[in-house]
Amino acid sequence: MNRLPALEPRLERLAQILAGHAVEQARPTRLDLDEANALIAFAVTPRVSLGFTQRAQPHEGHRTPFPTAQSKIHSLWTDSVITMKLLVLGGTKFLGRATVEAALARGHEVTLFNRGQTNADLFPEVEKLRGDREHDLSELTDRTWDAVVDPSGYAPGIVRASAEKLTDSVGFYLFVSSLSVYADRSKTMVEGDAVEELGDMPDDRLLEDYSNYGALKALAEQAVAETFPDTHANVRPGLIVGPHDPTGRFTYWPHRVARGGQVAAPAPPEDRVQFIDVRDLANWMVGLCERGDGGRLNAVNDGVSWSDLLETCRDVSSSDASFVWIDGQFLLDEGIEQWMGLPLWIEDESDKGLHRADISRATETGLTHRPLAETVRATLELAETTDAAGLSAEREAALLEAWTAR
Fold first, then answer.
1. Which residues of 324-344 are buried (b: 16+ CB within 10 A; e: fewer)?
2. What's the distance, CA 373 to chain centroid?
């Protein structure tokens, strides 16, 4: 039987299961950014024959094959989803929560490992273990899983400890990193580009200004790659948005537009922004584990213009909003903060690459995006604004007055 090399460790480990269940019943009917202490892992039970006849070709510079959307092997594997047993360190907040939901919807079994401090009543149907990845991973001893998804780590030492603990227990490690790892964020960012270096900043904690965030994520990626050299994925999302988003960043726009009236917006309206719906990201990540797709992968959408984004918010909310497009330099002169003051807005050329990420590799490994209107609608229904993101009504009124009087 020809096998994908990325799958060989788990297939060998579970040879008896594979022998006994090479062909199984048809699958049943289908039913940010950071989360403290989150880790996801799987144990495989095949649903269908794994008798592949063709190997996918690897991307240049990578040791494991990444099936393309056009290849036979990708089509076979997409249609031949395996059942996985999923362990999550965390799994009850935003990306971890969405990943559990995606895994359950695809028929996988889920176990949560967390401290029980956030949304502890979620997912009553799954097994729940209590622990803290920072201090004690003993509950993971003598357990076997197929793959691990780590959506929250940024301290390299903690990520390395998790990876080393699971070296003999899992066959594939998926780490959720960030587009912030790139050293040069002024241009289109491609997976092989240089990453941030820590310098003299601390490697065991996140600084208040987040200045070491990208470098910490880069070192955590390195820890995973060194521990699982041939069977890992380092996923690099941009801004994660949608249901249960705790940051309030993208969330500001659907809610602000829904209130109607004149909306201060950053010019020019044709500038594009990139982000990703948490449900699209989670579903794709579960698929990466199912297929054993690895390597470094940027993860955002293709980009939408500011005008399309805000007009979609208006259409979905049926509001009477109108948009006042304000020059970026004027916004800076008025003291409006980039990224958080007007969420998603980036004026500095040194960071505009955060909206110019190349996603061709993610697309080849199955990443798809739902219509923008679905993301906006779910955000209105299931995400709340925060005081930390966006303009207050008073601040926006003063800005609009200043722009009119210029």
1. eebebeebeeeebebbbbbbb
2. 20
Structural domain tally of the chain? 1
Q: How many CA atoms lie within 13 A of 356 on its CB side?
A: 14
DSSP H helix total and E strand total for the chain: 13, 17
Do the beta carbons of residue 66 and residue 7 sit within 8 Å? no
278: nearest Cα among 86, 113, 132, 102:
102
Query: What value, to the nearest 5°, has the Cα angle with vertex 340 and ends 336 and 343?
Result: 95
Q: What's the pLDDT band for 327 if we cut at 50, 70, 90?
A: very high
Any idea of the CA torsion for 305, 308, 309, 310, to the nearest 10 degrees? 120
Cβ atoms of 41 and 10 closer than 8 Å? no
**Cα–Cα dist 184/353, whole Å:** 8
- CA–CA gap between residue 34 and residue 300 (Å, rounded): 16
Q: Do residues 175 and 224 lie in contact, with contact meaning Cβ atoms separated by under 8 Å?
A: yes
> Using CA of residue 178, residue 181, residue 186, residue 188, what is the dihedral sign?
negative
- Whether 288 is in a domain gets the answer yes
Structure tokens at 287: 């698929």
Encoded tokens for 175:
């780490």
In a domain, 162, yes or no: yes
For residue 180, being part of any structural domain is answered with yes
Report the alpha-carbon distance of residue 359 to residue 59 in Å, rounded: 13
How far apart, in Å, do the first and last CA atoms of the chain sit? Answer: 72
**CA 286/CA 292 separation, integer angstroms:** 10
Helix (H, G, I), strand (E, B) or coil at 45: strand
What pLDDT shows up at residue 5?
37
Instruction: Report if residue 121 sits inside a domain.
Output: yes
User: For 343-398, how does the pLDDT look when each residue is reduced to its tens digit (9 = 90+)?
Assistant: 999 999 999 999 999 999 999 999 999 999 999 999 999 999 999 999 999 999 99
Q: Residue 98 is part of which domain span?
A: 5-244+274-302+352-370
Residue type for position 55: R
CATH number of the structural domain spanning residue 225: 3.40.50.720
pLDDT given for residue 48 in this prediction: 32
**Which DSSP state fits 326?**
E
How many Å apart are CA 198 and CA 396, to the nearest integer? Answer: 37
Rounded to whole angstroms, what are the CA distances from 92 to 208, 342, 403?
Answer: 25, 28, 43
Tokens of 277: 């719906």
Alpha helices in 152-195 (DSSP H): 156-165
Q: Please state whether the peptide bond connecting residue 268 to the residue before it is cis, i.e. omega within 30 degrees of 0.
A: yes
